[in-house]
Write a structure and sequence with these properties.
The structure is a homotetramer. Chain A is an alpha/beta fold. Chain A is built from 10 helices and 5 strands. Chains in contact: A-B, A-C, A-D, B-C, B-D, C-D. The interface between A and B is medium-sized, with 17 and 17 residues. Chains A, B, C, D: InterPro entries: Ester_Hydrolysis_Enzymes, SGNH_hydro, SGNH_hydro_sf.
Chain lengths: ~220, ~220, ~220, ~220
């Protein structure tokens, strides 16, 4: 009898489902599209399954087109805190830079940092693990001649330093994209290698983002 | 004995101080300067004393230079909700328009409205009475030829319509400034009548703002 | 014999064709489109024929999309002086204002005036009669709330004052458009009354421009 | 007698002064300041004297603050063609890029190229030797994180390619500045190494420009 009970207990433990970690991808139109069938979020999910970790993670996209860091803050309570995630991958900054020139409605770095810092602190207080990403590209030319290269580098540098100083996992998308484009853009095109339109990701772009993000998420299982 | 008690009770009520209503002025550099010795906030206080209502109101400035509507939202919890005010006079919008051209970091109207609306709703939920102001001026020329006149009119119109629709007291500073400048700017100067630098208020500007705001605050005693 | 010669001389004079005055319309995309079948230039021609003055004028369009005042100066020798016109109607300024916000490549008023003045002087030296036009609209809202209204008014004011001071015929398109929109835009739409897209002219817009221009050209017969 | 005459003739030829080549430096505020006592033009002159070539060249500054390529074209007849120079060093492009963000009045590359090309062709027709310079810097950070680095690189690339294709001597100031800053800006400051304010040259900057320009001018003696 005792033996049977022990067996049952073992069985119970063995089959008890692991509580999946909820991962929110929090960002702009790239993340909004990233939740679509060919987007980076399903690709992260595939990489996860390939690694036999499907029971460990669930992935949720919370991207809205045109968002800048303060638009994330606007919906931070509802789309992050109220969702009770374990991990939040923040992929923001492109519109903060881009909209300066398209519509005069970007975000200066000091405010970019202030809003970002406030969200990171609120996540930490809520026991949520943040992951930070550097902004990828606005234009794919690989000779530092895209209009916003200087500003993107400036914001990316801030993110890298903030993440290092605060021990936050970093997905250095800008670095990954630059390396990829150095090798794979011999004609120095401004789009068509990782993006469809200089900013939004094509299949190769979504795959690269998924691979880089999965490297950062996987160890947190 | 009963008589004495009654007398005591009457005395108690008579001398019990009225609880002052706390009025927060929530805004940008104009409000930050408005809290200074020659600013509009001490002038509102003077108008209040003139009307023998010093016991009814206390006035607190919460203005920070460069603020746009989303910068107000950034510090809304700490500077408004946590302060437990009765009334909040929101005077914002100039930088949302102005920074579009100076640094590419203004706010488009749709987002301006979304952030404003969210704060108004949170105030109402907290039992706080909001008062809305239209943005005054960027340039004092009175023939509709200041660079941002069109955009300021566009944002002012939204504020007027929102206030009307939601039964929120309105201080139409833009209208007041325009009327004043029609009469008092015969040389069509771009500064020096109500502002020192096209935007920030001189003594006359602070007085005009104080008078208009006091008209809206006084009935809420 | 003498009588016959006299008759012949009279006949010669009577049938000698009047030398047509060559009128160049010099401008941006509005003028480029204005040379098309439904554009304002054929409509000026129709008004001219209606007034039985077809033998007095010929009309030539020299408009190129995106042109600012300095783009006119770039091709001034080839497209104006070398064409030996009698009259040049200059219709420029919208892109000088508009491109400030769309691509950061507009023209400040001081330089706008300098280039304009240089071309006017060169025309006068060459015996060419200039006609100046104020810029029409960027947005058709009639309550001074179009983004660039302030700046357009500022440039229009300069053109009016320059024309008055230098005795140059003026076609005040901005004034004509404003008057028309006050009466004919009750829903305060931003396009569709005189323009297709806030800037470029529909049929009604082309007709209004043609009528106003013809009023200025006709007396120069 | 014949002998004496021959001697006299020889003496005449020997002492006849070489006609100095007139070199115009044509540019913006950097060139305007470059004509001042500590500017790059007197420094070019000093380098010229050091090389015992004082009799071969004379140097004239034609720089005006705020100039973009089309402002050069505006005064091209008066300040270049009418001056009958032998050599013109064109140093332009910073404001074409910079003013996009400061005042919305920069120049897009296609027009930058069109105006530049027109002036080069007119110089060639007039027998004037042009020398082209790439724009130096807007910000001295050496990690590609200055706001306009991408755009400056884009314009510099166009100038390099145009000069190569048309066999025009090139002074690659941007390259020289970048190399210098890689070695001499260890703290990654945004000003103070070659500029006083991110753009305008200090003593070291003026010397570097003078050295690079002299290398291009000297062989044309």
């Amino acid at each position: 009898m005792k033996y049977l009970l022990t067996l049952a207990a073992i069985a119970l433990i063995a089959f008890q489902p692991v509580k999946k970690k909820k991962v929110i991808f929090f960002g702009d139109s790239i993340t909004q599209q990233g939740a679509g069938p060919n987007g980076y979020i399903p690709k992260v999910d595939s990489l996860c399954r390939q690694d036999k970790l499907a029971e460990n993670f669930e992935f949720v996209g919370k991207g809205i087109g045109g968002n800048r860091v303060y638009d994330l803050f606007y919906r931070f309570q509802e789309d992050v805190l109220d969702q009770k995630p374990d991990i939040v991958v923040v992929y923001i900054g492109i519109n903060d830079v881009w909209h300066k020139t398209t519509s005069g409605t970007g975000t200066e770095l000091s405010k970019f940092g202030a809003f970002y810092d406030k969200m990171i602190n609120k996540m930490k207080q809520a026991g949520i693990q943040p992951i930070m990403c550097t902004p990828s590209v606005i234009g794919e030319r690989n000779d530092d001649s895209n209009l916003q290269d200087g500003d993107l580098n400036f914001y990316a540098k801030w993110i890298r330093e903030y993440a290092a100083k605060n021990n936050i996992p970093l997905v250095d998308l800008r670095q990954s994209f630059m390396s990829y484009l150095d090798k794979n853009n011999p004609a120095n095109e401004e789009k068509g290698i990782l993006t469809t339109d200089r900013v939004h990701l094509n299949g190769a772009g979504n795959l690269l983002v998924a691979q880089e993000m999965w490297k950062a998420v996987k160890p947190l299982k």
